[in-house]
Specification:
Structural class: alpha/beta
Helix content: 40-55%
Strand content: 5-15%
Length: 309
């Protein structure tokens, strides 16, 4: 499903006109006019979107900035704050998003900060449960021995604690009175959970380097999840990445932000992907399954024939 069909950013003439006429730009107190000037020397075309559109580029290419600008222009929900200057909103107002149909209310932008915040929230939640458990264990013996008298409803919670301590063992009391720890996941599992839990059907999603914290195997899982979400569940994705596993998603349109002018390319033509391919080609022999001639003869004599699958 395509909601955002295109997006046009300010060209060089529009940026120059803004800098010449904006009262804010004429002030000498600003050290940066970001995002104005970020793409100076490069021609940004109007981006034509498909179900999966990928912004590829090296560090400093501006792919994250483009996502943040699109998110603001479309007023997408975000949790983590992005880097801004007083000129950011002015830049966004010069942009022209083109929509094929209304952008659904559940659409949002997900960044690396969202993933890290999710991990920290889980850790903080578990730390809080652990602290309450330790405090309960420290109070357990005194609760069992306490000569409690109830004087009014204000003492009801204390009565429940004393009764539970007299009736249950420490471990039983902990299980009955405290929430369980959230199941501990690896960083990669937690990162993948952010996308599987927050991405729902029928929405537009902007993803900033979602491969962070993911192993190659997890990146392949994420790529399959995103591809299936676009194909079967009416989702649209605009993704900033340099992961070959995501770049290789079937049917994705890839914009090379390192090119001048910025243009679409096959994922196999991208510089970083070629560098990865050449690296493994240089180590190709180390991946080959090798056995000595004598070992092959011995296996054949025993009725065994080993081969590389």
């Amino acid at each position: 499903m395509i909601y955002l069909s295109g997006f046009r950013f300010p060209d060089a003439a529009q940026e120059a006109n803004y800098m010449a006429n904006s009262w804010r730009a004429k002030q000498s107190c600003y050290d940066s006019y970001y995002p104005f000037g970020l793409f100076e020397g490069r021609t940004l075309p109007e981006l034509d979107m498909l179900e999966i559109t990928i912004l590829y580029g090296g560090n400093g290419s501006g792919k994250t900035t483009l996502l943040n600008v699109m998110a603001d222009a479309l007023r997408l929900h975000r949790r983590a704050e992005n880097n801004r200057t007083p000129f950011f909103d002015d830049y966004v107002r010069l942009c022209e998003p083109r929509t094929m149909r209304p952008v659904p209310a559940g659409s949002l932008i997900l960044t690396s900060d969202d993933v890290f915040d999710y991990m920290l929230d889980l850790r903080a939640l578990n730390d809080g449960v652990d602290m309450r458990r330790e405090q309960m264990f420290a109070d357990y013996n005194s609760l069992r021995c306490e000569k409690f008298q109830m004087h009014g409803m204000q003492d009801y919670d204390r009565l429940k604690q004393v009764s539970a301590a007299r009736r249950y063992s420490q471990s039983q009391m902990a299980r009955r009175t405290l929430p369980a720890n959230v199941r501990t996941r690896s960083n990669g599992e937690s990162a993948l959970a952010v996308f599987s839990e927050r991405i729902r059907e029928n929405a537009l999603y902007l993803l900033d380097e979602p491969e962070n914290s993911l192993s190659p195997a997890r990146q392949l899982e994420l790529a399959q999840f995103l591809h299936d979400s676009a194909r079967f569940y009416n989702c649209q994705f605009v993704i900033a990445t340099h992961s070959p596993f995501l770049l290789a998603m079937p049917g994705a349109r890839v914009y090379d932000l390192d090119a001048e002018p910025v243009t679409t390319r096959k994922w196999t033509e991208l510089e970083n992907v070629r560098a990865t391919w050449e690296f493994f080609q240089g180590h190709k022999e180390e991946f080959e399954y090798k056995r000595s001639p004598q070992a092959v003869r011995n296996d054949t004599d025993c009725g065994l024939l080993y081969r590389k699958d």
